[in-house]
Amino acid sequence: MAKVQFTKMEGIGNDYIYIDATYNKLLLNSEQIQKLSDRNFGIGGDGVIFIRSSVKGDFQMDMYNADGSSSEMCGNGIRCVAKYVYDHGLTSKKNPVIETGAGLLEVDLTVDQNNKVELVSVDMGKPILTPAQIPIKWKNENPILDQNLDIAGQTLKFTAVSMGNPHCVIFVDDPDAFPVREIGPLIENKTELFPRKVNVEFVSLRGKDHLYQRTWERGAGETLACGTGACAVMTAAHLTGRAGKDVRIDLRGGSLRIQWLETGHVLMTGPAKEVFTGTVEI
Question: Which residues are annotated as a binding site for substrate?
């Protein structure tokens, strides 16, 4: 068995196990990732993120869900990666470029009086609305806005967005009263519609440009926060006339500011925190 150093980090409650693999090419299999992510028998987290060297950017984020499956992107995860590489002296840049499964993303760091990162803004790129690119199997290639979704004997209205990973956004009266843990996995695994499965957001309005979101994440279940999901929610809310282009989104773990810039790119701003470090035998 090998000993591996790790750092537990969280972005508004969306917690992952971070492993610095910039100096090696450490790989873990699906079973090992599941064991590390187990909240009773492992370290516990929504998954594992490796921080690797990159020839395309300054660093690479290599992400895996708690069930061991790989994922393209995590908005809260990339903020934590940015904090880690700066706070641990791997870079002195305050705008490093991170390579992800969704492409190269530039981040902007805000540091405190101790030169530690407290806020991270991420240029999340342009939302993808073309069904085949999300991907979703649909009757045409027009954006899917407030369309019917039949599930568990009821019809919900959904909007489909990709922020490098697929999202299904559903507006409901009260997400806390909605059966997220029953309906979420049914939609996630509706592969006849979402061939690569899907993240599902259940959303309500709290005021002008103020929304509340619960997320059922593909491969992880319900999480306290989802950054790419928040970007998808803002996109869906604006395109369906529910909100503007600069919104606050409350999640169970905290709040994010999401802006749709004149460039067409979405900017996400929020905190990132280091929880603890340790060594684990694998």
Answer: 14, 65, 75-76, 165, 199, 217-218, 227-228
